[in-house]
Automatic annotation (TrEMBL):
Protein name: Gastrokine-2
Origin species: Urocolius indicus
Source organism superkingdom: Eukaryota
SMART domains for the chain: BRICHOS
Keyword Disulfide bond: yes
Chief localization: secreted
Cell compartments where the protein resides: Secreted
InterPro entries linked: BRICHOS_dom, Gastrokine
PROSITE patterns the record matches: BRICHOS (PS50869)
Length: 113
C-alpha cells in the first residue's frame, strides 16, 4: 500500500509479503529515502537523486496507473537492489539530516547508506 502526504512531501510505501515485508519512506523535504527491511532488522538510506527518483506527483500518478492497469510499461519504474556495506548506529545529528519521518521508521536500527 502507498500513502502520499502532499503537505509534508512524503510518500509511505508498505509491502506486506511475509519474510520480505518492508516499509519505505520517500521524504522529499529532507531529500532522503529510507527502507526498513523487517527480515534484516536494518534500515537502508538513499539520497534522492532527481535524475533517477521520480517526483512525488509522478509517484502518485504511477501508483494510480499501476492500480488501474495491471501490466503497464513505464520508463519511470525504479528497481533498487541493496548491497549491505558498513552499517553505523545513528547519531543525533543524523536525524536532523534525515528528518523526523525517517527517524520514526529507523530509530534503534543499524543504518546503511
Amino acid at each position: 500500500t502507498m500513502t502520499i502526504d502532499n503537505e509534508k512531501h512524503i510518500a509511505d510505501v508498505h509491502v506486506r509479503s511475509g519474510l520480505y515485508s518492508s516499509d519505505t519512506i520517500f521524504d522529499y523535504s529532507s531529500g532522503y529515502i529510507a527502507t526498513r527491511l523487517f527480515s534484516r532488522k536494518a534500515c537502508f538510506i538513499l539520497k534522492i537523486e532527481k535524475d533517477y527518483i521520480p517526483e512525488l506527483e509522478q509517484i502518485g500518478r504511477l501508483a494510480f496507473e499501476r492500480k488501474t492497469i495491471k501490466a503497464i510499461y513505464s520508463p519511470h519504474n525504479l528497481w533498487v537492489e541493496y548491497q549491505s556495506g558498513h552499517s553505523f548506529f545513528n547519531d543525533v545529528k543524523d536525524w536532523f539530516i534525515y528528518g523526523r519521518s525517517i527517524k520514526d521508521l529507523c530509530a534503534g536500527l543499524p543504518l546503511y547508506r
